[in-house]
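Build the 3D complex.
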Amino acid sequence: QVQLQESGPGLVKPSGTLSLTCAVSGVSFSTDNWWTWVRQPPGKGLEWIAEIYNNGDTNYKSSLKSRVTISADRSRNQFSLKLTSVTAADTAVYYCTGGQSGTYHHDYWGQGIPVTVSS
Amino acid sequence: EIVLTQSPATLSLSPGERAALSCRASQSVRNLAWYQQKSGQAPRLLMYDTSHRATGIPDRFSGSGSGTDFSLTISSLEPEDCAVYYCQQRSNWPPTFGQGTRLEIK
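Done.
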């Protein structure tokens, strides 16, 4: 059974950097999957942020591209998100998700981690 | 960017009734997925490739559609179906989600 678990600070100061990690278990990170970060502001819908493929290729939401980085540590079976210069608009529940290569849906979801941007 | 518009925004029905949720795309998409999000929980995959049920999803859930018009039908509502339902496409870049339909069970 594939399990994803987010970790990281729940509070980040404005203009600071949000750093989250997603630990993947139940499947080797090197198998043919893609991994993403999706966020959900309070009371709002879902927003795709970034994704990384098992070959290291990455893609980012255009409006966030200058501030976001997704990376993977295959030796630890985990991937990470960094979002710089955060503002209150970045306050959200952040989910790590994944899917199988060649498919178009998010098979796997973490439980989500709430992050608040506030001084 | 493809915009997915879901309707209605809120649906309030009684147990045993049939629910029909709509997802309309601003451009044609090859396929669609649906997710169910219960209060305080992460989304869960319900349907993929428009009409395939994910593992463990009861057969009262069905999906259909093509091009720009898609739908999720729940044939006979159960109290546990109370949730927000999101459609999502990833066949056109960038991946996008609809804004959600809130399903209330009376």
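The beta strands of chain B are 4-7, 10-13, 19-29, 33-37, 44-48, 52-53, 61-74, 83-89, 96-97, 101-105.
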